[in-house]
Write a structure and sequence with these properties.
The protein is an alpha/beta fold. α5 packs antiparallel against α6. It is globular, with a radius of gyration of 16 Å.
């Protein structure tokens, strides 16, 4: 790719590989990445506290006001400005079966303290993730695809996060 992107938005379901992809691209391009969940939630030792919408939006505006950024998350309604500003939008469309496997694998690795967790990996959270994964196909993916139509010229659909090598090299 001749013109390397400076602003990248990665979107996909839980377990699609958004964070892993963001980390990899961050290392390749030397651009900071931001997890949208960590903008929504204030992480504390006593558990997560939801940021107010004003605080969330201020943090987000500060990030996308920079010259270089990678943002990743499943959120799409309150982050529309980043789709507009992004040089590249990566939509991870990984199979539901693979996402379910990754969710379980992450849960086990986090419970064993092998992988860092942004939240407490409980069975309740695991159930929520499976529910979000299921609902993504039914409720959110159609809305996301429809919303992204206006940005087709910069949207790349990836069936696996390893497909990024074809775009960046």
């Amino acid at each position: 790719m001749k013109n390397m992107p400076k602003r990248i938005h990665i979107i996909g379901s839980v377990g699609s590989g958004k964070t892993t992809l963001a980390k990899n691209i961050s290392n390749i391009l030397s651009i900071s990445y931001y997890e949208l969940d960590n903008i929504v939630w204030k992480r504390t030792s006593n558990g997560d506290i939801r940021n107010s919408m004003d605080d969330r939006d201020a943090i987000f505006q500060n990030i996308i006001g920079q010259d270089y950024w990678i943002v990743e998350g499943v959120h799409y309604e309150w982050v529309k400005k980043s789709f507009e500003l992004a040089d590249m939008i990566l939509l991870l469309d990984v199979s539901k079966k693979k996402r379910k496997y990754r969710i379980l694998k992450r849960f086990i690795l986090q419970r064993l303290n092998i992988e860092k967790a942004n939240y407490k990996p409980t069975l309740k959270m695991l159930r929520k993730m499976y529910k979000w994964n299921h609902n993504f196909e039914l409720l959110y993916k159609p809305d996301i695809l429809n919303m992204l139509k206006q940005y087709n010229h910069k949207v790349y659909l990836l069936k696996d996060n390893k497909d990024i090598d074809k775009l960046l090299h």
